[in-house]
Specification:
This protein is mostly helical. It has one domain. The termini are far apart. The radius of gyration is 24 Å and the shape is elongated. The protein contains four helices and no strands. Helix content is about 70%, strand content about 0%. Keywords: Membrane, Transmembrane, Transmembrane helix. InterPro entries: DUF6341 (IPR045922). It comes from Flavobacterium urumqiense. This is Uracil phosphoribosyltransferase.
């Protein structure tokens, strides 16, 4: 059973986390390049928020937004 868990350790530490170890060592040379994963996630989240806000605006302009406070029975 010990070999099984050591195999899992080898998989994660030496194979799957190798790109992240490379980025960590790269941080001393260039902070921006080392944080490319973070920049990519921030761009994806920002574009999703812009898309979501545009869709909310379109629904509100079409009159599909129900802003009545009695829309739910627990708000009466």
């Amino acid at each position: 059973m010990k070999a099984f868990f050591e195999g899992i350790q080898y998989l994660f530490v030496n194979i799957l986390f190798a790109p992240l170890d490379f980025l960590r060592s790269l941080e001393l040379k260039s902070w921006f390049v080392a944080n490319t994963i973070n920049w990519i996630f921030m761009i994806i989240c920002a574009s999703a928020m812009v898309y979501w806000i545009i869709q909310l605006k379109l629904h509100q302009d079409n009159g599909e937004e129900n802003q009545d406070t009695t829309a739910h029975s627990f708000l009466k």
